């Protein structure tokens, strides 16, 4: 397949997904193979929501909407214009996917196919309904993809390279098991926000999206704040309060109640507002319904600390603090060129 043919196929997939990118699903007349796939994908969405309590309709729709905005001619061209994609001998690339948020492994899936390789996918049991159906749609709009996409629930075998995402523990296993293969191994990372006390009400409201979207389960979710000494949290709590209906969701409420009980029994100091807690803690990974915070006195010292802990951090959310910062409210809207762990997967795939 020529590169433009592959781009065209993913654009058609984006057009198909647009029908499901709003709260009210609406079938359109001009979508290829819609009679064959529309109702089936509606069913897959229902299955995904029923199978995983964290995959609410709102979060699934949010994830799909993000991909519809990325799978356009302009975005795909901008992403790929810096590469020379001309694979003469396609390799079999295995992807071991996480399952923390809907379609979390789609970027790796897209990268392998767009670079010209074959893909072997091992999905998380938490997110197994959506991608195989979308892969089948791709094979219908671009039959050349047939034979280049496969899924397995067994031990992965017969592959030339691997992209694997997991916890810190599974990453160590991956590094050992795949040590003889070209690989990208990803482990736990978290995102942080740096506040100065000069944030507007809009900034803090936007920050709440970085904290609460997907219940905070993504590596791009802010799990820790750095705040100046003597920072008052009143404005912060006001900025996040519109998320209070989140506590009506059973899985979130159970985590909130459990973690609150643990903190109270342990006599930890924490602040809470009836649906969310903040606790002073040096760790980066905070439990669900909790945000850790740490005071700083000197911005240069904080920058040095964040540089030293770079391998633990996915995103830094701030305003005029550091060069590669992300704006408040933008962590869950990455571009195609915003690579996880800052590792360029296309460069990796072109070099194997």
TrEMBL record:
The keyword NADP is annotated on this UniProt entry: yes
Q: InterPro entries attached here?
A: Ald_DH/histidinol_DH (IPR016161), CoA_reduct_LuxC (IPR008670)
Tell me the keywords, alphabetical order.
NADP
**One Pfam entry name:** LuxC
Protein name, entry field: Acyl-CoA reductase
Species of provenance: Thalassobellus suaedae
């Amino acid at each position: 397949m020529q590169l433009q043919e592959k781009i065209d196929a993913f654009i058609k997939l984006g057009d198909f997904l647009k029908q499901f990118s709003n709260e009210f699903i609406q079938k359109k007349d001009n979508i290829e193979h819609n009679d064959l796939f529309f109702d089936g994908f509606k069913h897959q969405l229902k299955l995904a929501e029923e199978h995983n309590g964290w995959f609410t309709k709102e979060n699934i729709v949010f994830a799909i909407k993000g991909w519809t905005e990325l799978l356009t001619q302009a975005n795909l061209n901008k992403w790929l214009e810096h590469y020379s994609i001309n694979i003469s001998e396609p390799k079999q690339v295995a992807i071991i996917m996480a399952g923390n948020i809907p379609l979390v492994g789609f970027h790796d899936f897209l990268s392998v196919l767009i670079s010209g390789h074959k893909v072997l996918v091992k999905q998380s049991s938490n997110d197994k309904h959506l991608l195989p159906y979308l892969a089948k749609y791709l094979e219908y709009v671009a039959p050349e993809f047939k034979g280049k996409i496969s899924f397995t629930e067994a031990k992965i075998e017969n592959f030339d390279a691997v992209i694997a995402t997991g916890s810190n523990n599974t990453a160590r296993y991956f590094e050992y098991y795949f040590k003889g293969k070209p690989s990208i191994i990803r482990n736990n990372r978290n995102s942080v926000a740096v506040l100065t006390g000069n944030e507007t009400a809009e900034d803090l409201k936007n920050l709440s999206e970085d904290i609460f979207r997907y219940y905070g389960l993504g590596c791009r979710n802010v799990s820790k704040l750095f705040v100046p000494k003597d920072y008052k949290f009143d404005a912060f709590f006001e900025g996040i309060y519109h998320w209070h209906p989140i506590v009506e969701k059973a899985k979130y409420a159970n985590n909130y109640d459990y973690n609150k009980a643990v903190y109270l029994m342990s006599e930890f100091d924490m602040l809470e507002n009836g649906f969310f807690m903040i606790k002073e803690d040096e760790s980066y990974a905070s439990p669900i319904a909790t945000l850790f915070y740490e005071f700083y006195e000197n911005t240069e010292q904080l920058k040095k600390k964040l540089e030293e802990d770079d391998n633990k951090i996915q995103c830094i959310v701030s305003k005029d603090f550091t060069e590669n910062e992300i704006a408040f409210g933008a962590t869950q809207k990455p571009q195609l060129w915003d690579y996880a762990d800052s590792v360029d997967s296309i460069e990796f795939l072109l070099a194997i």
